[in-house]
Amino acid sequence: MCRRIRLLFLCLFGLSCIFRMDAAEELASKQGGVCFRYDDIHTIAEWSEMGALFEQYGFRMCLAVMPDSIALPQQGKLLAELAKRGHEIMDHTPGHAMFQLRYPAKQEFEEAAKLPFAAETRPGSNWVFFQYEFRKDHPENIRFTGSVSGNELKADDPGFQKHLTFTRKIYIPSTGKLYGIRVMDGKSRLFTFWGTGGVNLSVKNEPMILCSDMAIRPSKALIRYMAERSRMGFRKYGIPDPKVWCQPGGWEPFLTVEEIREIYGKEYRYRSASCVPEVYPYFNCFNDPAPDRYRFAMRPGFHFFDEQATLKEIKKQIADAVARHRVLIFLSHMNTRRIPGGWKAYMDSHRQLLAWLREKRIPVRTQTEWAEILYSQKADPNSDIMPPLNVDLNEDGIPDGWELLSGAKADLQKGEAVLSRTAVLEVKELAGLEKGLNRFTLRCRGAKGTRVFVELEQFPHREWKKPSAKQTAVFPLSGKTDQVFAEEIRIKPETVVMNLRIRTSGDAVISSPGFRKIQ
Fold this sequence. Notes:
Number of helices: 10
Distance between the termini: 44 Å
Radius of gyration: 27 Å
CATH superfamily of the largest domain: Glycoside hydrolase/deacetylase
CATH class of the largest domain: Alpha Beta
Largest sheet: 6 strands, antiparallel, barrel
Shape: globular
Helix content: 10-25%
Strand order of the largest sheet: 9-10-13-12-11-14
Number of domains: 4
Structural class: alpha+beta
């Protein structure tokens, strides 16, 4: 009897382990999608209307806000309410900057002025400017000879003048300081590092340094202070602690992925971030080779309604990204001044776009949700990642994810592409690749002697303009009947995306492209 009980217990224990393993191994579909992010502080009416519109279609949005810039308690209360309804409130730094902050209250200003990393203060307006760390020997710094008269900077080499552009920083050894550049009236004007005025120098033919942004860093203490300040501001209004940090644009050098990951990620438990350096282009994709790093580099795209992109153009961007297993993050500042029809037209365009996304069942999620899916979950390794030739969600006559070049044509109903000797069928930046050995397959039809060439290029993150691996497969056709060809492709561990180009030596019909991991 005891033996039977022990056997029953062992069986139940084994089954429970299997169930737990199955739960832990829940696989994510490689379907891409969209995230919508709206930056900075806006009116209660604008936030409310936008939130209600997203909820109408079953979606949620992201708001990147600066807590010290919230002017009205009602704004903070609304943000807390939106968070309860599933919208994501993100950390855009306390005051849209890392190296300076204007304090709402005099007492806070006086306390901040005593911080060990405070560099300058303006008591009348409650501004505190924070110290920077400059690395003179950074390999990306450029040395040049320059002169300054008043605040106008000139390079000794006239050809170098084109590098002295807006937001660049220079170091002048004789002063021991960094200065920022603004181009005004066609001239390079110097300001303090923080963008304030007061520069009046007389320097002639002195060796200077045009600084790399990576050579100018905030101290770890300053980053921690800003993280604490944002968290305190969120809690003041009952907003949940932020899980995403968003780099402010503009004047200042940007934080690196490592700085964000080490402090915001490990110390403050942020799950994702938007980072500028080292992340062009912005892939946001399945099976990223460095998920723990690039979850803090989820860059948004900028071709949105604010930049007068049309609804047709935006649908095309989304359809192609989904087909290529990538996530598009659309960034808007709710700036409708350049949009004909203003706010009403802006909202009408959103309404049509969200309705289309729901109709086509394209996922819309917050950045934290996408970060967990892309970088924490295991993607389904059995997926065929090639975009099919019969899907056209944006209805432009081109299969989603593909480009028809030099006379290539597509028959969407048949799921075929028709190529001549000069035509090219191409898919760029295809993501979701399984590392290791994969099999590419293709169905072809054409005259005997025609050859089909398939060129594949793999790209890592850091050298995305230069392929790390190339391979060309040649498929000879024997007649009019369909032939299925296969080629083994080894995806390197560092590969993030792949380009694939199909061309032929004569007229041919292409269909059923496939790309799967060999199990």
